Amino acid sequence: MGSPEWGNKSNGGKVKMKKFTAIVAAVVFFVGLGLAAVAADAPAGPVKVTNFGKKDVVTFDHAKHTSAECATCHHKAESGDFKCGTCHGDDGAMKDAAHKKDVGKCWTCHNKKSPSVVKELKCKDCHAG
Question: Which residues contact 10 (CB under 8 A, 6 or more apart)?
Answer without folding.
Answer: none
